[in-house]
Amino acid sequence: MSKYVITAKTADTDEAYLSAIFEDNKLVNIVQNKKVSSEVKIEHISKFLLSIVSEERYYPKDISSFIENHVSVIDAIDVVGDNFVAIDF
Question: I need a surface site. Which of 22, 27, 48, 58 has the fewest CB within 10 A?
Answer without folding.
Answer: 58
